[in-house]
Automatic annotation (TrEMBL):
It comes from Digitaria exilis. This is Serine-threonine/tyrosine-protein kinase catalytic domain-containing protein. The chain crosses the membrane at residues 15-34. PANTHER family: OS07G0107800 PROTEIN-RELATED, OS09G0352000 PROTEIN. Residues 137-165 are annotated as: Disordered. Keywords: Membrane, Transmembrane, Transmembrane helix.
Length: 165
């Protein structure tokens, strides 16, 4: 959703202000058709829908089950468990805090509000996604650290317990 830019060459571009997208981007499309204007807010909303698609592995609209934003809200309210939202094909192979950050960011992007809608800016979204990626990278790095045999000087470390991250 939003402006579509096609590069004809390195120096020439064509910008189309025609809305494009799926029914799952309904809020942004509706605002476009009502006002004839595309805004950063509509782009942020659309990006939030795409984030939810990526996190859940589901399409934006499921006949008889509604829009992805409502489905995710309902699952979170019902279970409070990110596992009920995350794409089951991931098999739980993700950092829980990272997945929460992605879903929380997507939900903030899809707030249903008007002008000055309280949605984050794309710069804010990028910062949140970088934080999420850092959490996931840390999980991957922890998993790749080889396990070594404990030595007697490791007892002090073991008796102090794990440190908080």
């Amino acid at each position: 959703m939003g402006l579509s830019r096609t590069y004809l060459s390195d120096t020439q571009t064509h910008i189309s202000a025609t809305a494009a997208g799926t029914a799952g981007l309904f809020c942004a499309l509706l605002r476009y058709y009502l006002t004839g204007r595309l805004t950063e807010g509509s782009d942020v909303y659309s990006f939030g829908v795409v984030l939810l698609e990526a996190a859940t592995g589901e399409p934006p609209m499921v006949p008889g089950h509604g829009h992805i934003v409502q489905r995710v809200k309902q699952r979170i309210a019902t279970t409070g468990d990110i596992g009920s939202v995350a794409d089951s094909r991931l098999g739980g192979a993700y950092d829980v805090s990272s997945m929460w950050k992605v879903v929380d960011t997507a939900m903030a992007c899809t707030l249903d509000a008007g002008p000055g809608d309280g949605r984050p800016t794309m710069a804010d979204v990028v910062a949140q996604l970088k934080d999420s990626l850092a959490l996931e990278d840390a999980r991957e790095n922890d998993r790749n650290v080889p396990v070594r045999a404990l030595r007697s000087d490791d007892e002090d470390f073991l008796s102090s317990g794990p440190s908080a991250r």
